[in-house]
Amino acid sequence: MLDYDQEAERYDSARGGEPRAAAAAGAVLGLLPADVRELLDTGCGTGIVTRRLAAGRPAARVTGVDLAPAMTRRAAERLPGAVVRADARRLPFPDGRFDAVTSVWLLHLAPSDADARAVVAECARVLRPGGVYVTTVGKAAAHNVGSDIDAVLASRPPSPARDADGLVTGYAAAYGLVPAGAAEFRGAGQGRSPRRTIADLRRGWFMTLPPGGPLADAFAARLAALPDQDRPRPDPVFRLRAYRRAAVTG
User: Fold this and answer.
1) What DSSP letter does each residue of 143-167 carry, written as one string?
2) Which CATH number goes with the domain that contains 106?
3) Cα 141 from Cα 128, distance rounded (Å)
4) Average pLDDT, the chain
5) pTM of the model
C-alpha cells in the first residue's frame, strides 16, 4: 500500500497531471446538475481535480476532504479555506448538507468491503434528497488495456476490487441511492511502460507484490525482458457512475 503522505509531492506528475485532471473533472461535471450550490469532493487528494470542479461550477461552494495530511496541505494551496482533513468513513458534516458529492479514485483504496460500504454510506448521508453522488468504479480493471505488460502481470496474486461496479451499486441501493447516469474518460499520461511499471512495482504500487520480495523480483525480471522499455502502452479509460438520492415526497 502506498504512503500517500510520501506520494503527495510527486502524485500529480506521476499520474497525468493537469490533462488527466481536466478529463476527470469534465466527465464528473457532465453528471452533476447545473444548479449545484454545495459540492463535496471526498478523497480530494492534492485538489487537482477539485479545483476544476470548482471552476466548472462557479456558483457552487466546493469543499474538499482528504485523510492524508500532506495531500490535504497541497489541496488547501489550490482551494484556500475549502479543504478539511477528515476520514471519508466518518464525514464531519450534518445530514443532507450537500447537493452533490463526488469521490474520484477513492473507493478502490478502501482496506475492506466494509470500509468501501462505509464511504458510500457517508456520502449518501450528507447528500440532500434529490442530490447526486458521482464516483469512479473498477479502477484496477481500467488499467488492463490488453498490452504485453498486462499479459505479464496477469498471473500475479489478485487483489480484491473494492470499487467493483456491482458492489458499489449495491452499496448505493442500500442507502437510498438509485442509478442516475454513467460516463467514461481517458486517463491522459497514464499508459504504462515496462520501465515505469518496474519502478511502480519497487515502490509498492501493486498491493499483492510487496517490494523486495522474490515474487516481485520475478515479475520485475519478466517486465525487464519486454521490448520498448520506455514506450507507454495505451492510456486506461476510467468509468464513472452517478446515483441520485430519492427526493422526499408526500
Assistant:
1) T--S-HHHHHHTTSPP---TT-HHH
2) 3.40.50.150
3) 31
4) 92
5) 0.91
